[in-house]
Amino acid sequence: MRCLNCGAAMETRRENYHYTGCGLPHVTLQGVEVSRCPRCGETEVAIPHIEALHRAIATALVRKPGKLAPEEVRFLRKSLGWSGADFAAHMGVTPETVSRWEHGSSAMGPTAERLLRLLVVHMAPVQDYSADLLTEIGDAADAGAMQLGVQVEEEDWRAAAFSAA
Fold first, then answer.
1. How far apart are CA 135 and CA 90, in angstroms?
2. C-alpha distance across the termini of the chain, in Å
3. pLDDT in tens, 103-145
4. Which terminus of the chain faces fewer neighbouring Cβ atoms within 10 Å, N or C?
5. Are 119 and 112 in contact (CB under 8 A)?
6. Which residues of the chain have pLDDT under 70?
7. Residue 2, strand partner residues
8. Extended beta strands in the chain, E state
9. Pseudo-torsion of CA 85, 86, 92, 93, nearest 10°?
10. Contact status, residue 55 vs residue 64, Cβ threshold 8 Å
């Protein structure tokens, strides 16, 4: 492998690498391939399966026994694929509150933190469940039961019909 900066041959070996690409200050990738240029000092790191890496980091964070740090809240929000406004809608708070959580000017309460951890662990990849729907939930006048029809299709269940009870 040649250095993209100066063209010299790079030296590659497995080592631990301080990973800053996720926005967290204390993540070390263990035993990854790191290539260094002996001439100019350029460094390249091979990070395989980066989505799986970020999922492993998220899983470790939700199992953390202490409170989440602001940068950890931001990482978990991003791991869910949400903007600050989407995250605020899902959490039932304002975007300003999310900003305060992520910048450390206000701590997340224990209930919000538990909800975030549960969302990261159990969030189903539902594509049509928008943040707008969550806003409508709070505006609904009645709390009546709903009739629900459920069908099985190829060993998978899905909701088929909804109506007010």
1. 8
2. 67
3. 999 999 999 999 999 999 987 443 444 556 555 555 555 555 5
4. C
5. no
6. 124-153, 155-165
7. 9
8. 11-19, 27-36, 43-46, 146-153, 156-164
9. -20
10. no
